[in-house]
Amino acid sequence: MTGGMALSHKTMTKSIASITGNTNKQISIKAARSNFEREPLIRPFGFKGGYMTEIWQAASMLESESGTRKVGLCSQSVLWSDASVFAAHSESGGNALMYAMTEYALTLLKGRSFNNPIDLLDEILEPVYDYGKKITNNNKLRETFALNALVSVDNAAWLLYAKENNIDSFDDMIPGEYKETLSHHHDKVASIPLMAYTIPIREISEAVDDGYFFMKVKIGQPGTQEEMLEKDKNRLSEIHKAIGHVTTDHTENGKIPYYFDANGRYEKKETLLKLLDHADKIKALDQIAVIEEPFPEDREITVGDIGLRIAADESAHTDKDAIKRIEMGYNAIALKAIAKTLSMTLKIARVAHKKNIPCFCADLTVSPVLVEWNKAVAARLAPFPGLNMGLLETNGHQNYKNWDEMVSYHPYPDASWRKTREGLFFLDQDYYQKSGGIFKDSIHYMNLFQHK
Q: Which residues have a Cβ under 8 Å from the Cβ of 86 and sit 6 or more positions away?
């Protein structure tokens, strides 16, 4: 077990009452089941030097002794959570291993009682992680692989917890000690598209024409370190030539910010600095707002001397890992309630808030329903530096072949706050009253469990 693993229930230093208040009831889980759907992608989706062609949508159903049923969702990403597992197996094989961990977690929950989802995750994370190491035959399995497998389970637990405690708003569901971290109510959140390796420059320009103004670009392309660097330099030159001159009213300097995500592909700091030298030469350096996860986690390369905002993503598995990354000079955290569970995300966000480290919400190419779980966090974080709003990456509309059909599974598919307009999500009173629809059952996903 690594130093970042969550504490067991017995060693929690906070009582249940101090975490979530005295009104919590003991919830007994009578039934726990899973199902999944395979959603094809429009084109191979490239990052971390690999390519995905489909994403499994896992669903977990928890039923309490009182008869309440809730379904939580997860968009699996084997390549993101542990590229070594993706490389060692077929695409379907890697997905099957993660799904098996979800199913195993549910077997642990049958007959178990809990007071709040955060304690519940603490109790099952370690055994699920150990099970994952066994079935993947990988003692160095990344903790994010286990957390990704637990997203649907954690979501179902939060929904069951809310229903059993008569909670119908996201604000009321947030435990007391995390409320300050998520105390904002933005009326606008920037919608960030993702430009993967294979996205044509034409589509990037079209996205800017449509109003998108904060551009996430995958770097760290396939090949040797030298080949990768040359490809990334050329890609940056092409992108900057196409959109670098565009102005926007949403940033302090009036320029389009670039958000580069390397997914740990740069093995040395010197290689990244060569890319930044190139950015400086083509006059793009001042538009780089953030570089996410540039180096392999196990290299433990400090980043405080790079001179740009460097964000931790995969390497901040848990709140303890986030503290370590901050000590290494990382000065932003990419939160993923839809990849590391809401429970763990609350812990990570709280650590960052205490240390005055800005956060934003990154996507995992998730379903429309899961976008709302991420948006719920992004809408309540402190404004990102240089902007007067939160940041939310969402790229499912760019990548899922059946995105429009998946939108129809959303409880409020036609709500104005669900859609991006001019590069923004506009969040009105209706949005906050309905909490983005996360408490309303999706008929489609509930029907996955109607026959048993």
A: 48, 50, 78, 79, 94
Section 10-26 average pLDDT = 48
Residue 303: CB atoms within 10 Å = 21
Confidence at residue 2, expressed as pLDDT on a 0 to 100 scale = 38
Which amino acid makes up residue 449?
Answer: F
- 3-state DSSP call for residue 233? helix
Q: Which CATH superfamily is domain 9-168 in?
A: Enolase-like, N-terminal domain (3.30.390.10)
pLDDT digit string, tens, across residues 388-399: 899 999 999 999
Cα-based angle 375, 377, 380 (whole degrees, multiple of 5) = 105
**pLDDT attached to residue 192:** 96
Q: In this structure, what DSSP letter does residue 305 have?
A: T
The string over 32-48, giving b where at least 16 C-beta atoms fall within 10 Å of a residue's C-beta and e elsewhere, is bbbbbbebebeeebbbb
Residue 34: partners with Cβ closer than 8 Å, 6 or more residues away: 58, 59, 60, 61, 99, 102, 103, 106, 152
Question: 342-354 and 368-378 are packed helices; what angle lies between their axes, rounded to 10 degrees?
Answer: 20
Q: Cα(150)–Cα(133) distance, rounded to whole angstroms?
A: 15
Mean pLDDT, rounded, for 303-309: 96
Q: Are 138 and 87 in contact (CB under 8 A)?
A: no
Kindly state the percentage of the chain with pLDDT values over 90: 90
- CA–CA distance, 63 with 264 (Å, rounded to integer): 39
Domain 176-447: give its CATH code: 3.20.20.120
The sign of the CA dihedral 296, 304, 243, 207 is: positive
Fill in the amino acid letter for 396: G
Work out the pLDDT band at 432, boundaries 50, 70, 90: very high
Neighbours of 1 (CB within 10 A): 10
**Count of CA atoms in the C-beta half-sphere (13 A) of 42:** 14
pLDDT in tens, 94-125: 999 999 999 999 999 999 999 999 999 999 99
Q: Could you give phi then psi for residue 313, rounded to 5 degrees? A: -130, -90
Strand boundaries in 142-182, DSSP class E: none
Query: Which tens digits make up the pLDDT trace of 25-78?
Result: 899 999 999 999 999 999 998 888 789 999 999 999 999 999 999 999 999 999
- Dihedral sign, Cα of residue 419, residue 420, residue 422, residue 428: positive
Domain residue spans in the chain? 9-168, 176-447
Please tell me the distance from the alpha carbon of residue 369 to that of residue 439, in angstroms, as a whole number.
Answer: 11
